[in-house]
Amino acid sequence: MSSSSSRGAARRLLALALAGPVLALSACGLGGPPAADPAETGGGGTHLTVWFPGTNATEIELVTETIVPRFEAETGATVDVTFLDWPDMSTKLNAAYVAGTAPDVFGHGPAAVADFVANERLTDLGPFLEQLDPADREDMAAALPGGQVEGTQYLMPLSLQASLLVYDADAFTEAGLDPDQPPATWVEAKEVARELTERDGDRITRAGLLLPSHPIGLQQSFATLLYAAGGSQISPDGTRATFASPEGTQVLDYITDAYSGEQAVAGSLGHDLSTLPPAQQPLVTGDAAMMIATAPQVQQMMSADPDLDLRVAPAMSFDGSTPPAAFGGAGPGLMINADSPEQELAWEFISYLVSPEVSVEYTEGIGAIPMRASAADSAYVSESPVLQAFLAAAPDMVPNPNVAGWVQVRDTMAQHLEQAANRKLPAEEALSQAAAEVDDVLARAR
Amino acid sequence: MSTLEQTAVRAPAAPTPGTAEPRRRRRLRPTQWIGVLFVLPATLYVVVYQLVPVVYGLVLSFTEYSPLSRSGPEWVGVANYLALVGDDDFARALAVTGQYVLMVLPPTVAIALGLAMLANRPFRGIGVFRSALYVPHIVSLTTVAVVWLWMYSPNGLFNEALTGLGLPPQSWLLEEDTAMPAVAAMRVWKALGSNMVLLLAGLQSIPRELYEAASTDGAGAWRRFRHITLPGLRPILTYVVAMDIIYLAQGFAELFILTGGGPLASTTTVNYLIYTEAFQYNSFGSASAMAFVLFAFIAAFSFLSIRGIAGRRS
């Protein structure tokens, strides 16, 4: 072989080696592909990719081994399901959108919806919903608003989630209280909590009332009490903060006093109870007599200690002067990627998951509150006083607002609420500062 | 011939401006092309996965960019950097990052040096001793943080020990005053093994004759340490301190798991803030600007520490 021909071969090899990465890089568009034209994305699709949030083993088994195979058998389509860890969900979705490889259907919490909508990444589910029987839509009425942004449905919730007061009936009895008469208001709950609180010197050994107090939990506790006091977090048009109000100050003082001062009813401010295993939950270990908890948490605690007599109080007013309210509404749900060429099949998959029988089967599998009112008649709900109590509170549930920039709004609120709860700032000042920053965030997100 | 003369003879003549011959293009031989091909995969790896992202990150820092946006990055000039100047959260995160480095670095280096000197002596079981000290380094930081999270929990090992001693339990990770020291203690434990091994290698490179000569001259333990060990360790000590500064200033995983940046943002480092800005708020532009400001700080402090320890001549 001559030296010139070998040089030519070597150069061709080098060019080929360089071409691969260069082409791969140039394929990485920054803005992703344009939205699919709905006119070109009719039915007839046969393959669907779906990303579910969370890595709950029971949910994975139920979805991949029961629900999806049945759907595939009924429709003849194939469905690739991937479960992603919650903390990775946004990161991976962002990367997939940039690369143009986002799934046809994906799940997320309601807090994420508005940002996707602001970037035109989601399909409006309204036209699909209109095809349903009105009675069917009414059956899902408690869940649907949580998946709407400015009145348009983008997320189809798979369950309801709510935080209600849960108490240990035995602790009530030991303290001379009637466990069949739970507190009717949050003010009354604090009074009962004082009777239930146990101390060793200055240290609280059993909390009378535990409110979630890690940063995100603190925002949720604040929202729970604020709604119960008749307040709101954001204006109806989503443009400004409304929590810096007399109601806001009142409930923030309530939270602060629950954790410090002579009348404190709880310790360990900031402790994230949501990450504790069921057997280590304070109601199970006897470290608390009352706490705010979700339906899955209560059921898991009762499974961890079957002798525990846990009961759920109905949605409450703050002091009796306003209607009762509970923080909650739509739980995580599914959305359709606006760029998906499989719009019809994607909706078919979602509507299958929220159909009455499958919906109950799914929520039973993960211990969640069914998103349909008719689920009250199912064995899953009718045999569980806990679920009945949560489902009964559905009409009083008020969700977080679905506005663009909500995650940053929530974190900003949490940061200032934490300042007040630690007595670094008076409640009124903390809320004023938070409101000013939240207004900025909302303005930037619009 | 003197050394100076030899140098003068062997030194190539400097080209005279204007009279130099045109430089001939050097052609690679076929065997050299094969060498290039062998180097190419590693070069491509470095360029594609390290250099391109860094340059792209720098470009992004001058833009406003959400990965969800269809329009791509929008050029905003130095606005992201200017915004950082008046950003209280960023200033606080910088201070917290500095506090974290200062809390971990001195005890880590001091204890690692002590352990290295201990492990440098011959005694039975020295291999087990060295291995045991190195184990924390080979366990992932995330795993270590999860184990320490349990130890710091209300019913964890530390509080059980306190209760056993008749002392009240502590909210280690929930109090503003104790959260950062608690994380720092974990990080010191984690970093000891690798630092000790490096310093041990440094100790073993110091000639024994120096110690013998110093002992013969009547130097005590402290004088031998001060005048032989420390100067002998200077190169490796410089490396250890510089690398520790670089790693610690980028602290994230342990803080994410142990404290989530709280309480009251007392453990929110710059890297934690970058994560929040980029992946929670989708603001890749401002997150990239933060990353390059952090890079500048790390580079400056690393340079200063190298100058401080190794000296100007090094």
UniProtKB/TrEMBL annotation, chain A:
Protein name (Swiss-Prot/TrEMBL): ABC transporter substrate-binding protein
Database matches in InterPro entries: Bact_solute-bd_prot1 (IPR050490), SBP (IPR006059)
CDD domains: PBP2_UgpB
Keyword annotations from UniProtKB, A to Z: Signal
Signal peptide, first to last residue: 1-24
Keyword Ribosomal protein among record annotations: no
A Pfam family per the record: SBP_bac_1
SUPFAM superfamilies registered for this protein in UniProt: Periplasmic binding protein-like II
TrEMBL record, chain B:
Membrane topology (UniProt): Multi-pass membrane protein
Annotated compartments: Cell membrane
Official protein name in the record: Sugar ABC transporter permease
Native source species: Desertihabitans brevis
This protein's GO CC annotations: plasma membrane
Region spans: Disordered: 1-25
CDD domains per the UniProt record, alphabetical: TM_PBP2 (cd06261)
Chief location: membrane
InterPro entries on file: ABC_transporter_permease, MetI-like, MetI-like_sf
TM region(s), chain numbering: 33-59, 100-119, 131-151, 278-304
Top-level taxon in the UniProt lineage: Bacteria
Biased composition (Low complexity): 7-20
Alphabetical list of SUPFAM superfamilies matching this protein: MalF N-terminal region-like, MetI-like
Keywords carried by this UniProt record: Cell membrane, Membrane, Transmembrane, Transmembrane helix, Transport
